[in-house]
Model the fold of this input.
Amino acid sequence: MIKQFILVSIAALTMSACNNPKEIKEENQKEELSMKEEMELNLVYSDHHSFAKPDEAVVKHLNWVATVDFDKKIIAATANYDIENIRGVNEIHLDSRNLKISKITRNDFEGDLEFESKEHGEDLGTELIIPITAKTTAISITYETTKGADALQFLNPVQTAGKKHPFLFTQSQAILARTWLPCQDSPGIRFTYEAKVTVPQGMLALMSASNPTEINETGVYNFVMDQPVPSYLMALSVGNIAYRKLGPITGVYAEPEVIEAAAYEFADMQHMVDTAEALYGKYRWGKYDVIVLPPSFPFGGMENPRLTFATPTIIAGDRSLTALIAHELAHSWSGNLVTNASWEDIWLNEGFTVYFENRIMEEIFGKDFANMLALLSYQDLQDEIAWLNSEGREADTRLRVDLEGRNPDDGLTGIPYDKGFYFLKLIEETVGREKFDAFLNEYFQTFAFKVMTTDAFLFYLDQKLLNENPSWVDAIRPKDWIFGMGLPDNCPIIKSDKFEKVEAQFTLWKEGKNASELEVKAWMTPEWMHFVRMLPDTMTEKQMAGLDKAFGFTEIGNSEIQAAWFEKVIPNNYKVANQATEEFLIRVGRRKFLTPIYKAIVKSNDGIERANKIYAKARPNYHAVSIATLDDLLSWKAE
Ligand code: BES
Ligand code: ZN
Done:
């Protein structure tokens, strides 16, 4: 059980939300009258996925000294922690998993400490119980990572674009930071850090911190993150990496072979940052850079502070998949500033971020475009609910999920994203955009560098926004959304002329019109996605070949469209796409694409056998996160 109390001054907040000078004056007077009018947010929560006891003794700062060994595929490190023994307790609890710990020391004791390692199973790992006293202000742990470091992926040169140098990246969210760093691995616990990382000469190291932009001769790099961050935002990337500045505070990192294309693709990045700031307040992290990783990165993107990690599959050549950058950038507010207290509240991170992402896209590409994205999200949501129901997982269609005794990855469905988005959209539509934006601005400001629980958010929402008009709560029914299953019947309905046009063309095609005669000229990625998703489950060879001839789906450079196409044609035994599918599955490790494609293969003729054959070849290329999901999906027996 973790307890925190956050005092929020309502008067001061109301004031900061007004732009009108006259109103501010009035508000100032009001504030004087009601200086004591404070509301106490009672944040009591438990994180089932960490053994830390931060209300007893907590890590405040980390000084990490590490060497990356590409031959042994390990990191050898000493982690020096400044700690605060809040309650004068006699032990501090850290999370770890599959680490080889050789030594633990502390400032007020000579020699090595005897510590306790308590095993908690495959997912949660080993609880380290380290003896301390009221005088302890620092502890030090010397350790090495092992083959079981699921956060890390060491790539051989063949898995990179350049094919000459190895590569390493980390993925810490949700509870994998503990596989490369003993830490209090709970999203509500924040610490600052500095690091000194030694890598082979000729390589660059980058972290979620202040970063170098050039390879140096020594192979030693220093990092500082002086704003407190939770452990899941700890990140490291090492490789032959180049940098290209894009704007005053923005830039992109990638292998030299990819940097040109990356710089072209993300040309809008500075504009996105400016747009995001205009919406919800100052960008608080100094720089915003993106690193384009090799294709085995298991996610689309990861919002590591100051340095988003991204898959190269968003490089389509036409800047059409950059909503993902808007998403990761938006996390600089929702998630990185205001952070879900536990993984059961992940909708507070992801739902807010999808909403924010949509607003950025609307500002930059217009309402029509944002509406199309919202409709794709609606389709995803319908599919996800249907799938979870079919699996007997109705409870996981709640926004607030129960993950006790489960892996937090189980909560990582489309629900926190898409249902979260529609819930916030509903609030926006009910109270009006102006009020909702003022509310969100305050929310990010007030809770910056703090945690948020679902209950505290509901209370705050009520006090700061919905209280004003009693009919709003009835119109929104927040509790139905958060604690109820499925999709409430007051879900906003979004209309899109553009999608209606796509539907009209689709109907013509279905009635027999040649694909090459359809009017598709100005279609952008969302329109193509809508079209491909509408394709019937059963298609003839002639239909598929016709579409392919007209639109080149099988070889298309846009990974989203290509993956959606594979998903449709594979169960129809469209042999033409076999080789491209196989190549895609071997090259790309992004789980969001892999899962539906493997599922589609399993559905085709001789599917299980073929899926396993491809998987045997592809599996060594994948990150542990994707392997875990696919081993399960394909009932793979690890040797
Ligand atoms: N933070 C998430 C990725 C994540 C969530 C990793 C939970 C591990 C546990 C990231 O911001 C994300 O949502 N990525 C999406 C892209 C987005 C545009 C929906 C992805 O990777 O597909
Ligand atoms: Zn996200």
Notes: The longest strand covers residues 57-69. The radius of gyration is 25 Å.
